[in-house]
Amino acid sequence: MRSTRPGQKKMSCLVAFTDVVFTAASVRGPTFVANGGHTVWPLHVFLRAQPMTMGLSHNIQDYLKAILQLGKDEAATTSDIAARLDVSPASVTSMLKKLDELKLVKHESYRGAVLTHAGRKIALEILRHHRLIETYLAQALGYTWDQVHEEAERLEHHISEEFEDRIAKILGDPRYDPHGEPIPTKDGHVPPTTSDRLADGECSDVFVVRRVDSHNTLMLQLLAQLGIGIGTTLRIVTRNEQVGTLTLKHQRKNIDLALEICEHVFVERKSDVTNK
Questions:
Q1: Any idea of the CA torsion for 193, 194, 197, 203, to the nearest 10 degrees?
Q2: Closest CA to 22 of 5, 47, 41, 3
Q3: According to the model, what pLDDT value does residue 55 have?
């Protein structure tokens, strides 16, 4: 064990948080004995040696995934994280400080948080687990798209890397989940997706539905009842701002759909599809 100078804190090079399990059997490098005699490793060594999510609490994993999905290319705000995870802003602030100390996010008060490189890798792995599970539930077990999210939320923290690989192989390495959301690849690449909302379309525009970014059960069930899903072609007939609806033509029928729902439906112009 590395010796320390008088007055030097022996744990100064360790990341010693109760949410992380720091054990290893075969990694070479400087080690420290702490926590009752267990071998403890610096976090960067631990993350290289083990699957990215191993040892991180489910709570930490949920926060990292939420920040990834909320932040995109900018900071995720405390209020947005609190709303997404249904927790208090004070709880978010406390966790962000911990994640900052773990070097998984960069957090500035009143500005929110952005993922570090290590934090993003972990978040992408969790998101890959989640969306692969959703796809497996839908394709192999017959779950509907309004049922898969809650099941995947429970299972995403528990599957091994081998199980993940086998699911991906069985499904043919899918690029998108049942809601049209991109599934990160094993190396962290995120397939492209559209950012155009159905709610922003104009009359006579023709679109193909590419993804729905809500897991609201009633909304997904309504869309399914109307025959709207991934790959559905829709034409905007009229727009009624006063009532807050779009009238859409789908399979020779007119459908009135609330603009609030249309905000969550992302589309690609039909002309763009046919020109590919």
A1: -140
A2: 41
A3: 73
